[in-house]
Amino acid sequence: MQRLRRLNYLIEIPLAFAASTTVAGLWFWQSAAGGQAWKYLGAVTAFLAVLKPILRIPDKIQDCGEILASLSVIENELERLVKQIAHAKKYDDAMFEKYNKILDLKGEHKKKFQTGKYQNVSKRLKRSCAAEVEALYPGSKFFVPEV
Questions:
Q1: How far apart are CA 14 and CA 58, in angstroms?
Q2: What is the value of pTM for the model shown?
Q3: Which of 29, 42, 51, 81 has a CA 20 to 30 Å removed from the CA of 21?
């Protein structure tokens, strides 16, 4: 999401710069070199103005925010359950039921974000995220008590 925000910012700067009448009136643009630079800036700005709606960067940023918010809810619920298990020093049927509810949340998340506009997530990004999670939380480090 940070990369998308940075890209959006880099597109917005020339658009705002070229649209400013104050900047257009500066003495530099009246010289031969300035006039040439202003023409190039105008061409780049026109290209970016056409490209920006095609890239839909703000929409992608919003999509990432929605996915992140949904995953944060699941993460928070899992952390709460882990703390409850540690505090109670047991894993009983009630906690197993809470775990199943969290799995239902995960299923709802997966169903929502694997359809429509969320479907085209980069496979490289998926592999990268999976590798990072596996590195942080390898399966061998988890203890799952029997119920």
A1: 17
A2: 0.57
A3: 51
Token pair for 54: 């095609």
- Could you write out the DSSP letters of every residue in 77-116? HHHHHHHHHHHHT---HHHHHHHHHHHHHHHHHHHHHTSG
Amino acid type, 89: K
- What long-range pairs does 90-99 form, CB within 8 A, spacing at least 24? 91/145, 91/147, 92/147, 93/147, 96/147
How many CA atoms lie within 13 Å of 55's alpha carbon, on the beta-carbon side? 15
Mean pLDDT of 95-102: 90
Q: Is 26 helix (H, G, I), strand (E, B) or coil?
A: coil
**Average pLDDT score over the chain:** 81
Residue indicated by tokens 């992608």: 60
3-class state of residue 119 by DSSP: coil
Name, in order, each residue with C-beta under 8 angstroms of 41's C-beta and a sequence gap of 6 or more. 14, 17, 18
